[in-house]
Specification:
Helices cover about 20% and strands about 20% of the residues. It is of the alpha+beta class and about 120 residues long.
Amino acid sequence: VAANGDVANKVGTYSLAVLARYHGVPFYVAAPLSTVDLRTASGADIPIEHRRPEEVLFVGSCRVAPEGVEVANPAFDVTPAGLITAIVTDAGVLRPPYAESLALAVRGGESTPCPTTDRR
């Protein structure tokens, strides 16, 4: 999680966030506070691991793409903070503006407590 609230996660997370926004569904991220890096300003600064092209060029031993095709096979994508309703952490539920709420939580300040229910 970058200082501005952008989040790197497995490929497909960004697409789900876009779909959630389009359909008016809140989009929450669950992440331990230990994954927040205040030294990383935004998602643009998060290095993205790329997987081997063969993972998408072949199914088993059968090639499913033409010879010479270029492949981008990222292991992660970045979801912009603007698509995230809140970040649920072990320190509480953090809400925008994330630059403030993340910094406060990492430095040991208050965050929005998780709601509790009476289970009697």
